[in-house]
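Example 273, ligand S-adenosylmethionine.
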Amino acid sequence: MSSAPTDRDYVLGTHDGEINRLGLQHRVWRPTMLAAWQRAGLTTGAHFLDVGAGPGFATLDAAEITGPTGRVIAVERSARFVASARERTREHAQVSVHEVDLMQDEIPAQEIDVAWCRWVASFVASPAQLVQRIAAALRPGGRVVFHEYIDYASWRYLPARPRAAEFVREVMASWRAAGGEPDVADRLPPLLAEHGCRIVHAQPQVFCARPADFTWQWPAAFIEVNLDRLVELKRADAAWAQAVREELRAAESDPTSLVVTPMVLELIAEKRG
Ligand SMILES: C[S@@+](CC[C@H](N)C(=O)[O-])C[C@H]1O[C@@H](n2cnc3c(N)ncnc32)[C@H](O)[C@@H]1O
């Protein structure tokens, strides 16, 4: 289903194509995410908060790890994503999914052991408010794990693909036009300090993949889904979208191609006691 943008949509949309893309993206990133959660101390019985949970792919993993003695709270603004996350986690009674706009509402959670925030800060008007709300939900000694972009323009193809480079610039411009900031991660360390959280781990996460690698599919799927979205938002025309697609096909059919992915900064911070 295709949907026109609404005030509760985020810039990438909430249609089925975007839900499927978020699922693929989650599967590519899952090992990195699970390693980060282990570093943050996530275990059976923990109280977990998924901030801007989307359709709940990570929420389900958290429910399986924390188990029936744990508690998983997911907050998400889009009603479509909330419904999808509830459906995905319906067999886990310890999961609750709340329709919350993080820029307007408090997070209905307290004494959280581990909070998780991935690819959300880029899309909110106030990262400061986001960090303040997450910090307020943590227990003293609780930890927050962020995976947010630090250098979106690191995304490039080798050999160089000029249309793909235009696409990356256009995506960054579209997020900024919607009030977000792609390279938002550099704002997080001072905000975390301001809200009583000390960084205990920081690591850039970037992949380099060939067309035959599963990781290749992450940026490829993003291009496929978001070309349509950019046309829908009238930020691009169909002829340009077709030219980007053809260039991506050319890259995929050349086994010597490489893609370097947009750089994410992994941050783990602990709330002071
Ligand atoms: C790129 S998706 C990431 C979803 C999920 N965190 C994941 O990693 O798959 C960004 C999510 O942030 C949500 N979001 C954006 N602004 C929000 C806000 N103000 N309040 C709550 N959720 C928001 C969007 O609805 C969307 O689900």
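Summary: The beta strands are 47-51, 71-76, 95-99, 112-118, 138-151, 156-158, 197-205, 208-209, 258-260, 263-271.
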